[in-house]
# Entry
Amino acid sequence: MINYNEKPILIFYETTKACGLACRHCRASAMEFPLNDELSYGETINFVKSIKDFGKPYPVLILTGGDVMRKNGIKNIIKIANENNIPVSVSPAATTLLSKESLNFFKENNVLSISLSLDGNENNHDWLRGNGVYDKTINLIKEINNVKMKLQINTVVMKRNIMDLPDVLKLLIDNKINIWEVFFLIKTGRAIDAEDLTLYEHEDINHWLLFAMNYNIIIRTVESPILRRIIDQGNENYHSYLYDKLVDKTIGLLGKPENKRLYLKSAETRDGKGIIFVSHNGDVSPSGFLPVALDNVKNNNIVDIYRNNTILKKLRNPENFEGPCGSCNWNDKCGGSRSRAYSYYNNIFAKDPACINSV
Ligand code: SF4
# Structure
């Protein structure tokens, strides 16, 4: 059992802001060229090697962007992490840079998994990410399956793609992908003006995710820790117009589930507790959706920052949450999205406005 006061299990590193896509909701507000303040190759290697100071087992380094394939020296960075036994996963953009040769390179260098984004059916996915990106993603899924690498699909939930969720679930099952990470939009980066889900949509969709787990698939949420409350509460007697509609569509596509519910025995992590984010310029934040720079890996060792930063220490103690999240029975297990609290109230300790327990 990992002590989250001592080390995270996941370190997200935004290698670069550069990306060939320009997705409408991009957290990183990615752009065509890298920013001048991006960590240099040498600074990146120093940071990567410093992860060993956490001690074994080392946290998993998740390389994101922008597009990780646009990071200068990315292959050497992965090679060096591998030589130092630091586990790496990659989250690249679906572009031609993600070639068969790159996939083979990942495999040879023990990359644990690749995650690709798929945000619904072709219309919605291409509306969000650009024409042709859906087809590219479907081809990449086949290619990654061909090289027998572990693949995870990430989906951002927004108002316009809610009813696509059962289709994405079917696509995962048809392609034998058993890890689905469902992101609940935070109004940050290019998503700042996006229309948020209502409180009830959050609740209904999370209940549906619990139902969807019966299809023998691991489902994790990002910025929606209320799923843990809902798992505890169960959904046997849950009904709502949206939930029932999602369930009916799912059964229509996949038949009734076998009720082989797979729970990921994880790790009750939340922003700053068990996970940490390092941005393209080395700034450290509790999460990639929470743009508050607490320190920088150019000035301080990541281990020292994670263990000793006052705000991170405060975030790991649920007694510091305000309003309903402070007094809730699930305040440690769930704790609410600190990123959403910040995006709504400019206060990382405030309640998560997406939870019905918080009204
Ligand atoms: S009130 Fe806060 S801690 Fe409790 S379940 Fe809701 S979001 Fe989680």
